[in-house]
Amino acid sequence: MLSSELADLAGVTVRTLRHYHQIGLLAEPPRTSGDYRQYDVGHLVRVLRIARLTALGVPLSTLPEVLDDPSAAEELLDQLDRQAAAEIERLTARRASIGVLRRAGAPPDLPPELSAWHAEPGPDVPEDMARFEHEQLILIAHLLGEEGVTGLAALLDVPESTREAAAALTSRFYALDDDTPDDEIEALIEGWVEQIRPLVTTMEGMSSLDPLGAALLDQLGARSLRPVQHRAVRALQQHLEQDRPDAHDARGRRDVR
Questions:
Q1: Buried-state track 33-70, b at ≥16 Cβ within 10 A, e below 16
Q2: Range 3-68 has CATH code 1.10.630.10
Q3: Residue 249 pLDDT greater than 70, yes or no
């Protein structure tokens, strides 16, 4: 039979047959006087075996030893079973993540752990602020890593009263502009500090942002926020840094010197 006939019978393409020849999976058949490859049923059986094994997930690079050594089959099946089990586990986890995001109405580019915290923004949230908060969460999630995101999600799982207080402070932050009096800005920062300080204490020992991560978040704020809002965020960070135990220790060491 010719290449096209073998390909039709085996359910592959002529290009696939040529590739099998090139990598040594399929021996070259004799040629006719017209220089056409002339295959027989042995070639067909070989191609059918190759197709079956590749359908099971066997890589082409492993096929020669499997095709030519029947004793390798049991070990191969064990390996394929482990790979299939791992793939099922990954797909099951992926479906679970999709389900969490759909139920929360959260964007698909966020980790599922943060979906409850950042669902669809309300109508009163300015578009630029919604975009900033979304991008900020994406960046924080990447910088903290999987373990850090899990810890952050646990900290954000707060009572409804705390969420309402946070929402009130956030609304005041949204409204900051160049005309906002300094005392109002300072009052907002103090309110933030009082609300966030217990979380900072709880986070001791958890994954935290390194200086590069903090710098990247600062760059995001400088790019996305109004100048007065960016200054307020920086002031909040400075207050929280001063509250850290290691910051007190560092100041104490400097005082001793």
A1: eeeebebeeebeebbeebeebeeeebeeeebeebbeee
A2: no
A3: no
